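USER:
Class, as today's exercise, take the chain set out below, and explain how the chain folds.
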Amino acid sequence: MKQITITGGNTTFECADDDTILRAALRAGLGFPYECNVGSCGNCLFELVEGEVEHERKDSPAYTERHAQRKRWLGCQAKPHSDCTVKVSLRDHYKSIHPPKRVTGSLYAVEDHTHDIREFRFKLSEPAMFLPGQYALLYVPGVEGARAYSMGNITEDGKEWHFQIKRVPNGAATGTLFDKIRIGDEIGLDGPYGMAYLREDAPRDILCLAGGSGLSPMISISRGFARSEKLKGRNLHFIYGGRAARDICGEPMLKDLPGFGESIHYHPAISMPDPDNPAAWPGLTGFVHDIAANMFGDKLKDMEIYFAGPPAMAEAVTRLVVEKKIPPAQVHYDQFY
């Protein structure tokens, strides 16, 4: 164990030799800023005042030579080699309601939702609670580094985590999960993480926007909504986008929820209908952000918005938020896709 001290006060915490400074801080109940947890966003940068650290991921997209020259490191990647003193602004906003745990998950079931989205269900070695919409880090055997995936289920006992994962062409982690991992195999899990969890106290209708494996956290949000007594009388709209009809999924899971068709509304859309057979898709066409704008217009400012999907979709939704002047506090997204 290494002792980490934060400047400007008497805050210290312990970090295991195989842990990172960010994750150890969150386990200790501290509000260390972060978002993606895999070295891509840069939100967890801190200044190293004293001590020695090393990055777990050597090619982190959010890390530059300028950061190194300024003695700044990524909290999600920095492993301490000695006791350290660091400078970072802690914020209560980032404190974990359920501090993350490192556990083992045993795969007990899989289910295909589309040609390239599969659900993997794990039983945990010890209970670990999470909030609807949060994510975990998966340590896939034979694959270097962790991968972030959102849970698709909700839980009252923390005994199971389910993940709806999209296969990435030539992806090391998804290739192993889809082609090599079998029932009974175990993987390392670390979580929960993420700030895009269901806000049950928000007095607004909910809009879930999803594409690809962004399905998983939005299904979890929807399941949490259906269970919540605080959200009775509210509506949830779920817009799911894909390129073609074969990419569309989610409706069977939503149909199982109480209130489907009454307080829970599903709106699938495809962006690339077949020009030679347009009647093959009778539903909505276009991109998720355009569907939302056309469907709700200025009413978007009165909604609690959750979204997850590929980077291009996230960028488009972010622009929509600015254009429609939606209060940022009503928009929730974890940047790790």
DSSP finds seven helices and 19 strands in the chain. The first strand starts at residue 2 and ends at 6. The mean pLDDT is 95.
